[in-house]
Amino acid sequence: MSALADETIVCLPGERLCRTEDNIVLGIGTYEQNGYIYASKSGIVNIDDSGENCQVVSVHKPGFHLTIPATGDVVTARVLVTTPKFVKCAIFCVRNVLLESSYRGLLRKEDVRETEKDRVDIYKSFKPGDVILARVINQLDQSFLLTTAENELGVVIAYASDARKTRVPMVPVGWSEMQCPQTTIKEPRKVAKVLPESSINAVK
Amino acid sequence: MLRVTQTKNSLLDGASIAEELYTTPKDGEDFFESLDKPEKEPTKLAPRNTFIRPGVLTTVRGSAYMEYGNTKVLAIVAPPKELIRASARRMNMGVLNCYVNFAAFATGDLESVAERERHLGSMLTKAMEPVVCRTEFLNFQLDIRVLILDDDGCLLSTAINCCGVALVECGISTYDLITASTACIFRDHVFLNPSAKVEELLWKHRGNSNTNATSSTSSVQEHGLIITASMDTFEQIAQCQQCGYLSPATYVKLLDYTLTINKSLRQLIRGVLTKRVKEQHELDLREKAESALEDQRLEDIIEKLKKQGLDEFIQSNIKEDPYVKRI
């Protein structure tokens, strides 16, 4: 296996990659049929065996690849409409890939916070125009269902409602509050704990 | 496919030569005689001279250009759009739409163009549906657009081949590579990859036999056209379109011919796509190397600044305010 991993294996759709076994997981660009794993994209075969006694077989397509939000992806979205029950937003970025066209996202009241779910008020968490980080949990008929029930998810960029013209983003001053540096107005938000890039890399 | 109306457009000279060749049934006969007829059983099962190039357009993500003999086709795949009305076709699969357009100079017969476009579009959609992994983009709509630049027969099969390449180029998940080819039989002669003239001759013959129901010898004869699109990994047939009058034995024979041609076309497409992947892989590596170089440069600058001390850096960057008077 190690000898194979060094050189690049080019594959095309419909090419048989390997047999399905218990310790082999299907990655991106593959599908399973009749006990074998086949490629569904053209690209370079990538075998990742860093996980615990399992190997992920995936196909990486060089150049352009299509990104559609999948379950579990962290997405960046802009809040469009808030109602007492849910928030409608436009997803414009998936992981670190900027999308060409935005997709519809839906964030329900129950998925805003991890704790005290019944006491969540949408109007105390989001305002139209906020940029939020969220995780995709499901794909509904019409839109993607999102959640911000994590410390690292929530509002990232927000502007105070009366000082919108100045375009000075508010600064988080707690888990549930943001403050405008110019007018010192405090507004309630579901604030995301944004980790600096260096610390994320250090964890990995 | 074949044209239905047989109106002649005398205003267009270049494109209408083919039609002027046989305006009367007698001319058709003459043309058939002048045609170098293939043998009754074709010995060489090969596609026409083919040129395929994926990624011809830089403005679209997935595009492909294909020349199949004199037939020239361009296909583009747009990134999936969200379905606006999900209730229209509530399924747990994505929706695929194919649109075919003729370039204004592609065909002489302008009156039937709209009809042919619609017909080709619907048949192309049917052929492409089994190939695309439609479960991967639920409630998305995928648009494939085909522009026909030149028409010399085998339109549908060329369009299918071209679309298949464009889909792979766009990075849309497909179960397999799809290839298609055309074969027809006319007066016991099997034409593989028939040209536009042969297709039209066949169509005319068919039109005649339909109108004159009297049992003339020619109408009893086998005549027909078959288009097969196949996916070879699982030995599947994505689409099989046939028209005319064929006995089962002939049908199977023609089917086998087209499948053999599909196999050799598949080899060709595989080669093209493999080359493309390698090409793009190299580009990616080069890009990565360049960005790494840039990162290195920035890191060096930061390192230098750290040594210099931050204050000095800030001081060196502060420009003097021209409105503040110096004392």
UniProtKB/TrEMBL annotation, chain A:
Q: What is its main location?
A: nucleus
The protein's name: Exosome complex component CSL4
Residues annotated as domain Exosome complex component N-terminal: 10-48
**Which locations, inside or outside the cell, does it occupy?**
Nucleus, Nucleolus
**PANTHER family cross-referenced by the UniProt entry:** 3'-5' EXORIBONUCLEASE CSL4-RELATED (PTHR12686), EXOSOME COMPLEX COMPONENT CSL4 (PTHR12686:SF8)
Q: Which UniProt keywords apply?
A: Cytoplasm, Exosome
Q: Which Pfam families match?
A: ECR1_N, EXOSC1
Q: Which residues form the Exosome complex component CSL4 C-terminal domain?
A: 99-137
Organism equals Drosophila rhopaloa (Fruit fly)
Its gene? LOC108044161
Q: What Gene Ontology cellular-component terms does the record carry?
A: cytoplasm; nuclear exosome (RNase complex); nucleolus
- Which GO biological process categories is it annotated with? RNA processing
Q: Which domain of life is it from?
A: Eukaryota
Which CDD domains does the record associate with it? S1_CSL4
TrEMBL record, chain B:
Annotated InterPro entries: ExoRNase_PH_dom1 (IPR001247), ExoRNase_PH_dom2_sf (IPR036345), PNPase/RNase_PH_dom_sf (IPR027408), Ribosomal_Su5_D2-typ_SF (IPR020568), RNase_PH (IPR050080)
Q: Which UniProt keywords apply?
A: Cytoplasm, Exosome, Nucleus, RNA-binding, rRNA processing
- Domain of life of the native organism: Eukaryota
> What's any GO biological process attached to this entry?
poly(A)-dependent snoRNA 3'-end processing
**Location(s), subcellular:** Cytoplasm; Nucleus
Answer yes or no on keyword DNA-binding.
no
The UniProt entry lists the main location of this chain as: cytoplasm
Q: Name one GO molecular function term.
A: RNA binding
Q: Does the keyword rRNA processing apply?
A: yes
Q: Start and end of every Exoribonuclease phosphorolytic domain?
A: 48-172
Q: Name one GO cellular component term.
A: nuclear exosome (RNase complex)
Which SUPFAM superfamilies would you find in this protein's record? Ribonuclease PH domain 2-like, Ribosomal protein S5 domain 2-like
Q: Give the family this protein belongs to, as stated in its UniProt record.
A: Belongs to the RNase PH family.
What is the name of this protein?
Exosome complex component MTR3
Source organism of this protein record: Drosophila rhopaloa
This chain is encoded by the gene named LOC108038786
